[in-house]
Request: fold
Amino acid sequence: MPHIKPKVTPIYQTSVFTFEDLNELELYFEQPGQQYMYSRYGNPNSDELAEEVNEQEGGAGAVVTSSGMSAILTAILTYCQAGDHVLCAEEIYGGSSVLLSQELTRMGIAVTYVPGDKIYTLATYVQPNTKLLLGETMSNPLLQVLDIKKLALETKQHGIKLVIDNTFASPVITKPLALGADMSVHSVTKYLSGHSDVTAGVLVCGAEEDYKRSRQIAITYGLNLSPFESWLAARGLKTLKLRIRQHAANALAIAHFLEEHPKVSKVWYPGLAQHPQHQLAQEQGNGLFGGMLSFRIADDTEAVNRFMQALESIPFAPSLAGVSTSLSYPLGTSHRSLSGEQQQKMGITVGVIRLSVGIEDVEELIADLGQALDKV
Reply:
């Protein structure tokens, strides 16, 4: 058989790898990374994805997982055990809130939510058993921007770890580890893969010891990613920089359009000058503000339904970051599990719509949004 040198890594769609004899088996344990044994422990495709994301984030090592939620779980378990306490930014993805409040509390890990105006003064929230703070680079769904460098100084002062969910930004816009975070987490499902055809997660560690612990947790809990989805995600990652630039350019144009529209009462987008963290977002994001925005129309369910039904090319799809534009409804999807009081406190009202801006021709997107808003 001729020597084969593929330009793209093949799909290693196998659950197990073979050994020549006992000597080769012992070599596997003596020299980790020289060979593969079982795909839950490691696979060339998942390793390729991890290494590429790690390089983009500038980490000491990355672990890919079966979803963004399993990446957050792995991150928390890296630092916490029963009896520990975690802090979490009050405005956070609803799934993260459910994991902390409903599941990890059952395992003996307590959680306290920190309001946005108190996030840089943690003294009254940190307890002797506090281990970490979880926050998002840009919050879901109202795009509040964290000053990661400032927050890293605050968490270090109290001796706790800082875990940043960087999903909305991607390493093209922000690199949390370079700003002092201990771990950067992504739902690879979103921008890193980018084509709405993969469910995956990744956590990137600033310290090698954290990487080793995270990897062990993912292996033991069976949180690994399949070879095929790893391959798909690695393929999507190749166009990340191009896609993010187009997502961001389109989102900025749409944000300006919505800001001026009489049917829209408020727009949340860090690229707008009126956004409270606009200057921070500009500095921390290298002049890019991402592809996510939210806006509010009339706080009336029927008005929201009329708007959604009138859209011709933008589907209602409760996820984000695909190459095609879609919208979501935080009150009924991502933040559904929160109490009415929590939803109101965060500003998630009946008329709030989250828009994941794709990479299509922006003029066509604006035209579709405009004609749908006319029917509200």
Observations:
- Residues 302 and 376 are 9 Å apart (CA to CA).
